[in-house]
Design goal:
2 copies of one chain form a homodimer. Chain A has 7 helices and 2 strands, in the order αααββαααα. Chain A is mainly alpha-helical. The first copy, chain A, has a domain of 109 residues: Winged helix-like DNA-binding domain superfamily/Winged helix DNA-binding domain (Arc Repressor Mutant, subunit A), CATH 1.10.10.10. In chain A, strands 1-2 form a two-stranded antiparallel ribbon. In chain A, helix 2 crosses helix 3. The radius of gyration of chain A is 21 Å and the shape is elongated. The interface between A and B is large, with 58 and 58 residues. The structure holds FE2/S2 (inorganic) cluster (2 copies). The site of one FE2/S2 (inorganic) cluster has 7 residues of chain A, from helix 5. Chain A binds a DNA duplex through helix 3. Chains A, B: One of its GO terms (molecular function) is DNA-binding transcription factor activity. Chains A, B: Pfam families: Rrf2.
DNA sequence: GGTTTTCGGATATGATATATCCTTAATTCC
DNA sequence: GGAATTAAGGATATATCATATCCGAAAACC
């Protein structure tokens, strides 16, 4: 059970977009360069964010991506589910139905106990991600990343933001 | 991020083994038949349980599997990790290192904030699974499964247990 | 009109999950 | 001792999914 690397990419990109001044856009090219990622493939992750309405896009030479709402209104789960999908990690294939002792036509009323427990764990994972806002990540980063690097990075970004 | 179906299989098999009388073994063949699963492939899941020391095995005509310890001493995480592995679902590929603004040779002191948050969610998932014992599942099942089916199933199992 | 950009579709490649087969060694039963 | 049964593990095949690249269309900017 491994999340795709697109999840990491999307999170880092959102953190950068969160620092963008109102109304400016940042292109896939800039985001790919900044993170050392394949531009074409990163583009797919950004498209997922766009389809989930987490970011707005515009075309043309000064186009690119920006957050669709305030970074305090976007949480980690929004981003993770945008690229990873919202399907549960555990799927019940109902093998209990194959029990040869079961009466013909017998139908279970509830989802089975095994699945319910696994789904509970899934919910705990989701709840943790739901509680962390993108703005929280930005706060942490702005404290942890050396001030010099933090500033030069946003200077670099602003030079490329349309 | 999808768990393999072996996880479901292992959980159901453990629930059955938990109902086995002291010292008896149940073969892969019986477990596969009971759940309608490919015997050879289910065998791989059971081997994983064996390598994790969750079950004991014995060879020969009356051989098979039994729990290595009491069902109250085995939790869901034990079983899930036995077949799924214990690697974290999120891996930090350190793309922050690719930032062109970083000074040469600069080395980060801690794991990055993104990874720490994702790992926290992972821990929440694991903790939930850790809190549920195999004996808890058996209790739930014994209440939920119709008494008739529950009894006939264990009669079926006992007839095949060596 | 030419350039730059997002978007979607097509396609290729690699890794992993799923599944089967076969050999070996241990155990039971006769 | 010999035959039958079983788990363990290696080899292999197939399907699905993650990763990655490429291209054409449409939109925006100059
Ligand atoms: S029948 Fe297996 S998890 Fe529901
Ligand atoms: S650098 Fe991306 S998660 Fe650590």
């Amino acid at each position: 059970m491994i999340l795709k690397s697109q999840v990491e990419w999307a999170l880092h990109c959102c953190a950068i977009l969160a620092g963008l001044p109102e109304g400016r856009y940042l292109s896939t090219k800039a985001l790919a360069e900044l993170h050392g990622l394949p531009k074409e493939y990163l583009s797919k992750a950004l498209q997922s964010l766009s389809q989930a309405s987490l970011v707005n896009t515009t075309l043309g030479p000064s186009g690119g991506y920006r957050l669709a709402r305030a970074s305090s209104e976007i949480n980690f789960l929004d981003i993770v589910e945008a690229v990873e999908g919202s399907a549960r990690s555990f799927t019940c294939t109902n093998i209990r139905e194959n029990n040869p002792c079961r009466a013909e036509g017998y139908c279970d009323s509830k989802p089975c106990a095994v699945a319910r427990i696994m789904w509970e764990a899934d919910e705990a994972w989701r709840n943790t991600l739901r509680r962390v806002r993108l703005s929280d990540l930005v706060s942490i980063l702005s404290e942890e990343v050396p001030a010099e690097l933090w500033q030069s990075t946003f200077a670099w970004v602003l030079k490329r933001a349309g």
